Model the fold of this input.
Amino acid sequence: MIERAERQRKLQTTPCWSWSGVDALNFSERTEDLERLAAMLPAKQSSDEQILAFLVYLRGRFARWLHQDELGPTRGQQTAALRALKKSIQTLQRQLAKGAPSQREQLDAILGNRTDSSVPTLERIYEAAADLERYLQVSDAPNRKIDWAVKIQTCTETAMAQIQCLDTNADGKILLIAILHGFDRLQMCPLHFGLAETEQWLNAYWNVVDQTLCELNERGGADERVSLKLLVEKLCELWERETGRPVTAHGMIKLEYTQRTETEAGRFVTAAVEVMLPEPPWFDKRSEFSQPIRAITFLPSRQPDRARQILVIMRDFVKRSKPRRAA
Done:
C-alpha cells in the first residue's frame, strides 16, 4: 500500500505533457432517461421537445467539462510542468549571459539583421544561434565559442518543446496571466530586435510563468468540482425557468440530516446529475486521471459523495439568489 501510494504521488507531481482538454461532443446517446427526467418537472413553460433538446445539449457539454476540468492533469502535475518550463527559460537566460562580449555582439548583430518579423522570438533565437554556429565553424573559431552557440540552440529547443507540449489547462492559465501583464508570449519581433530586447522578452516570459506558478501554489485545499458546480447551477436555472418556483435546498427529514438534498428541486437536480454521468467505459479510457479526489467524486460508484456536493452547491445557489429575488 505504501509503494502504491508513493507511485501515485510521483505520478501526480510529474508533468503531463501533450494533454489536451479538447474532447468531442456527443449528443447521440439514448434519450429515454432524459425523457423521464423532464417528466419530473412539476410545471413547464417550454414544450417537452424543447426541454429534452436542452437536456441532451447539457449532457454532452457536461462530459466535455468533466474531461477538461476533472479528469485532466492535477494541480501538482500542472505546477511540475510550469516549474520545468520556468527552469528551461532561466537556463537559456544564463547561457546567453555566459557569452563573451565578442560572442554576444555577433549574436546581437545576427538577431538585429533578421528581416522576417513573423518568426516568434524563441524560434528567432534558435535560428540566430544556428547561423552563428555555422559562421564560427567556417571561420575556424575555437570550439568553446562554437559550443556556446550550440548550447543556446539546445536550451531554446527544450523551452520551445515544453511550451508546445504544455497541457491545455496550464497553457490557458499562462495565457490569462500574460494578458493581465500585457505580455505577448508569441512576440513577432519587429526590425532591430537585438539581443538586449530578446533578453528583456525572456525575462518577461519568465515572470509570467512564475506568476502563474505562484497563483496555482496559493490555491490551498481540495480542488473545486467546477464541472459539477456548473451542471448543478444550470439545472437549478432550468428548474426556476420552467416551474416558476424558486430553488430550495436542505438535507433534513424529520430533524435527521441525510447528507443529500431533500427538496423537490433537489431531488430533480440530483437525479439529473446521475443521468448525465458518462457510462463506465468513458471513465475507463481516462483511468490515468481517475485517482485524485476531485475525479473520484464522479465515478459511478460514488453517488453519496456527489449527493453531498450537490447539497453544498445548491445551498450556495439559493444563498446567492436571495438578493436577486429581493431586488
Remarks:
- The chain has two domains: 29-73+223-326, 75-218.
- The two ends are 56 Å apart (CA to CA).
- The beta strands are 252-253, 256-257.
